[in-house]
Amino acid sequence: MAPWYMLALVGRDQAGIVARITQALYQGGANLGEASMLRLGGNFAMMFMVSHTGDASAIEQLVARDAQALGLTVHVDPIAGQLHRHIQPNMSVSVYGADRSGIVARVTSALAQAKFHILNLESDVGGSDQKPLYIMHIEGQCASSVEQLQAALADVIQDGIQIHFQAVEPMVG
Amino acid sequence: MAVLPVLIFPDERLKQIAQPVEHFDTALRDFIHDLEQTMRAGPGGVGIAAPQVGCLQRIVIVNVSSKPKIAHHGRLILINPEIVHSDGSVTGREGCMSVPDFTGNVLRAQNIKLRSRDEHGAALELECSGYEARAILHEMDHLDGLLFLDRLVSRRTDLFPRKKYQ
Predict the structure, then answer these.
(1) Which ipTM value was assigned to this complex?
(2) Which of A7, A101, B41, B89 has the most other CB atoms within 10 Å of its CB?
(3) Ranges of H-type helices in B2-77
């Protein structure tokens, strides 16, 4: 079984990036696993699990020509990860408030103290330039109840940051 | 009495449309018994549809009574079910015995009214909401060859539970 690598590419967003990079990987005999890609502030960031018989530099070479043409920076690391290692989230956290520095640090520090394991975090800035609104959504796993987490985040909530916890109970049918 | 093998996608039978049940006989009730055993054998399974075991008939079993603090009708055997009204929408996490090792967010109606038959052919009408409605809608999708994968919503475009804005 070919080893897995984490391939990250970042650069100015433009249409067709994903197609060109994944074609180059496919043509080069690489296999894709889990991936996450999104546009962040006009840039496009891609993270792929890639399996390939070659070493990290071989993967870098597979995408080098297209990455250069598209102006993307490339980073490859060997990883110990495997597929089918999912942890199911059991808690979802919605956070929003007037944008100010420290929201993510304060919220995630309090969550870490409550032994909340973050599995997915996405945040965005909405509102206007004059009144920016910071919005964050977190999914994770935690042994604490909604009430216990509310108590753990009480100081942050008191400072005007809206935080809503919702237990995630997958319906399996 | 048997636990039946559950079909795993990409088995084509999971994408086919199931036919209405016409005979409410002992054979049907025996099959329902096996289907229920199969549902219970699955980890955390609260519902099952006949196509998941390769029987292309419009039969669904839902039982969410094991979940704490939710409204439910206990053990539901739904034959030829039809949704006659639905309203509201809410996003929730779903998984499926036919799609192992993956869960995803799906938008479903908050409230439903349905008409169905029971295993003896008697007509029944039900109003369900929340988690139970989600389970019924997920299972009824199987009758039309639909999987929750056909209805996934993006995490990113769903930063807040929609229920808050109703």
Answers:
(1) 0.88
(2) A7
(3) 26-41
Bridge pairing between strands A132-141 and A91-98: antiparallel
Contact between B147 and B132 (Cβ < 8 Å): no
For B102, nearest residue in chain A (alpha carbons): A86
Tokens of B90: 């809410």
Interchain CB contact of B135 with A (< 8 Å): yes
* 3-state SS class at A97: strand
B22 is catalytic: no
B49-77 per-position pLDDT tens digit: 999 999 999 999 999 999 988 999 999 99
Q: How far apart are CA A91 and CA A18, in angstroms?
A: 31
